[in-house]
Amino acid sequence: MTKKHRAIVAEVPHLRRYAHALIGDPALADDMVQSCLDRALRKLHLWREGTNFRAWLITILRNTYVSHLRHVGRHPEESPCGMDPDLAAATPPMQGQEMAIQDIGRALEQLRDDQREVVLLVGLEELSYKDTAEVLGIPVGTVMSRLSRGRENLRRIMHGGGGDAKPSLRRVK
Amino acid sequence: MTPPKTMTDSDLNAYVDGELDARTRLEMEAWLNEHPEDALRVSEYQRQKTELHLSYDPILAEAIPAEMRETVLHARNRTVRKVWLQAAAAVALLLIGAGGGWGWRDALIEGKTDRNLAFATRAAGAHRVYAREVRHAVEVKADQEAHLVKWLSKRLGNPLRAPGLQPAGYQLVGGRLLPDLGKSAAQFMYEDSAKRRITVYIRAYQGKDIAFRFMDNAGTATFYWIESPFAYALTGAIPRGELLKVANLVYDSLTR
Q1: DSSP string of B29-94, one letter each residue
Q2: More confident site: A17 or B113
Q3: Residue A132: its chain B contacts at CB < 8 A?
Q4: Do the chains contact at A148 and B204, CB–CB below 8 Å?
Q5: Which residues, in sequence order, are CB contacts of A133 under 8 Å at separation 6+?
Q6: Looking at residue A43, what is its pLDDT?
Q7: Which residues touch B49 (CB under 8 Å, ≥6 apart)?
């Protein structure tokens, strides 16, 4: 194996962690990683030495997932349930014996895709804002506003959603 | 003295992510002492990060799935083999001279054509094995079509449909999952009123799309084509013209 091939194998656990958190469905997540590897191997000569290899691979993984979503007919920016994205955070909580704090995996599912990926790239993969902006092909300012909204929505969802669904005063529209 | 800056949402997040410069970080710490609501949010954002790691870090410790490891290893071997094949082709050309052996040269150099043809050959092989089965022709029968399609879609990583071939007189018998070079392939089987069977073989394929191609092999005819994310092959022991009509139907049915 060449150095680059060894480097790819070493990144597989990170790609899988990110894909599982982003996609939720483990089988689909692994399929996306598999397709990402296929693509990355074909494009390996395009990677520029000295740039963040993990960010480069995650970019490919993301593009793979986006084209998958497009193929299944879902626009990547839509919230999973097709609700207004900001209303998605205001889903009434289930009553009864539910724990006050929701499992973060389920809470993530309720975030809209563009917020979820920023929350995960920064919060889980610990990419810098700059690398995150490059992965997503958006300005750093947009990364920061998506991150703010994503974390605030996540906080509300995890606290049971509807209870305090008043719009944040700081929310940037 | 300048009044201390008002901290925004983005500043709170940048603090959590270690993206503030040293001076703003100090200002932020003073701010948080004065603004307990913001301090609470900061601690919740930090807890979100911790929870993400608690939930998903175990994946880092899992063994790398064999298929993924093989993909990378295989790619390495493939590169080596391709170079070797091209060298062999060049030598062969030198030996044979410009006069002959063009077909052979093409087969050696056109690795891509080769690979697609190999796919069609595997599809035809699967057809010959299962189309003559009476009791075990399929794993899941047509009466459970929804389940079958959902299952195969999941295994192939992209949503599939069983093409509707009633206009050509073919009814769905059912389908099965098959191994295809370490990946999954789906086979749908159809039958007409004369009990003649045809199969549609599908596997995931990332790459350049190709239009219909035809292959004749040991009594069966196969039309195959690629439309990312899938490669398709339709096989039957029926005349080429008839099969082409069905191939068009499959294509229309899947792309509509």
Answers
A1: HHHHHH-HHHHHHHHHHHHHHHHHHHHHTHHHHSPPPHHHHHHHHHHHHHHHHHHHHHHHHHHHHH
A2: A17
A3: none
A4: no
A5: A139, A140, A142, A143
A6: 84
A7: A123, A124, B16
List, in sequence order, every residue forming a beta bridge with B198; answer none if it has no partner: B190, B236
Query: Cβ atoms within 10 A of the Cβ of A31, count?
Result: 25
Q: What angle do CA B160, B164, B167 make, to 5 degrees?
A: 160
Terminal Cα-to-Cα distance of chain A (whole angstroms): 50
What ipTM does the predicted assembly reach? 0.80
Does 1.10.10.10 match the CATH number of domain A85-164? Answer: yes
Q: What is the DSSP pairing of strand B171-180 with strand B183-191?
A: antiparallel
The pLDDT tens digits of the residues spanning B153-195 come to 999 988 888 998 998 999 999 999 999 888 899 999 999 999 9
In three-state secondary structure terms, B211 is strand
Whether residue A5 and residue B76 make contact (CB cut-off 8 A), yes or no, is: yes
List, by residue range, all CATH 1.10.1740.10 domains of chain A: 3-71
* Fold adopted by B110-255: Phosphorylase Kinase; domain 1 (3.30.200)
Residue type, position A88, single letter: A
- Give every strand in the sheet of B197-204, ordered side by side: B140-141, B171-180, B183-191, B197-204, B230-236, B220-227, B210-217
Q: Nearest Cβ partner of B158 from A5, A9, A68?
A: A68
What's the rounded mean pLDDT across residues B194-222? 85
Q: Do B67 and A33 touch (CB under 8 A)?
A: no
Question: CATH number of A3-71: 1.10.1740.10, 1.20.1250.20, 3.40.50.300, 3.20.20.140?
Answer: 1.10.1740.10
Let me know: does A156 contact A89? Beta carbons within 8 Å.
yes
Secondary structure of chain A in HEC code, one letter for each residue = CCHHHHHHHHHHHHHHHHHHHHHCCHHHHHHHHHHHHHHHHHCHHHCCCCCCHHHHHHHHHHHHHHHHHHHCCCCCCCCCCCCCHHHHCCCCCCCCCCCCCCCHHHHHHCCCHHHHHHHHHHHCCCCCHHHHHHHHCCCHHHHHHHHHHHHHHHHHHHCCHHHHCCCCCCCCC
Amino acid (1-letter code) at residue A42: R
Q: Would you say residue A166 has pLDDT above 70?
A: no
DSSP annotation of B167: G
Residue whose entry in the numeric block shows the structure tokens 């626009």: A75
Pairwise CA distance, residues B248 & B195, whole Å: 21
Contact A20/B at CB under 8 A: yes
Sequence-distant (≥ 6) Cβ neighbours of residue B125 within 8 angstroms: none
